[in-house]
């Protein structure tokens, strides 16, 4: 949600500079539309509510949203846990879906690029290689020179995160933070993670079990 709020703030700032509008009013409208109607056509509805709807403007707002430099923060446990893993000689990797430019901007804003031995932006290889495709997982273990059966994959979205690593023999862990937005596990074999945690600091007990 923090990324969405950052993107809406960028859009609101742009519209307020272009029209006689207050940035906070535009931002609040965007948030209200999102909560009421979901992500479908937020910018269409926003422009209509401001009486400035235009198809080209919708496309421009989408571009601004996707390419803005986000103001976001990692959860407090992320950096300390990964740094400790690296101090212990554990190889680390990140596999991320979504438009490559969006995900790259997120990683840059979070300042976490240096925490990983490999970062795989699945979009760089085409949408067909987004998770749950097994390809990025195979690329990760090959690059890290670590067998899948010795690897642990942590994710939060059972619709895409665990199907491939389960099939490859990885230990899979779903992190379910509270509060948070949690997607339901799809029906079918292999979608559920093998275990769950509520904080990344719990990773160490899971890793110990995987030895």
Automatic annotation (TrEMBL):
Protein name: HAD family hydrolase
GO MF term set: metal ion binding; phosphatase activity
Alphabetic keyword roster: Hydrolase, Magnesium, Metal-binding
InterPro entries according to UniProt: HAD-like_hydrolase (IPR051400), HAD-like_sf (IPR036412), HAD_2 (IPR041492), HAD_sf (IPR023214)
């Amino acid at each position: 949600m923090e990324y969405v709020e950052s993107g809406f703030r960028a859009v609101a700032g742009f519209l307020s500079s272009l029209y006689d509008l207050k940035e906070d009013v535009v931002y609040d409208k965007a948030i209200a539309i999102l909560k009421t109607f979901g992500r479908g056509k937020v910018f269409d509805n926003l422009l209509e509510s401001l009486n400035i709807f235009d198809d080209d403007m919708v496309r421009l707002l989408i571009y601004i949203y996707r390419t803005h430099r986000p103001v976001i923060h990692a959860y407090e446990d992320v950096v300390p846990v990964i740094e400790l893993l690296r101090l212990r000689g554990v190889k680390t990797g990140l596999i991320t879906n979504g438009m490559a430019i969006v995900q790259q901007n997120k990683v840059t804003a979070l300042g976490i690029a240096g925490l990983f031995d490999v970062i795989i932006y699945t979009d760089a290889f085409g949408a067909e290689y987004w998770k749950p495709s097994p390809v990025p997982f195979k690329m990760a273990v090959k690059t890290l020179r670590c067998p899948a059966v010795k690897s642990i994959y942590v994710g939060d979205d059972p619709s895409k995160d665990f199907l491939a690593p389960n099939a490859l023999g990885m230990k899979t862990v779903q992190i379910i933070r509270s509060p948070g937005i949690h997607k339901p596990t799809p029906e079918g074999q292999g979608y559920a993670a093998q275990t769950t945690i509520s904080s990344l600091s719990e990773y160490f007990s899971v890793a110990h079990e995987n030895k």
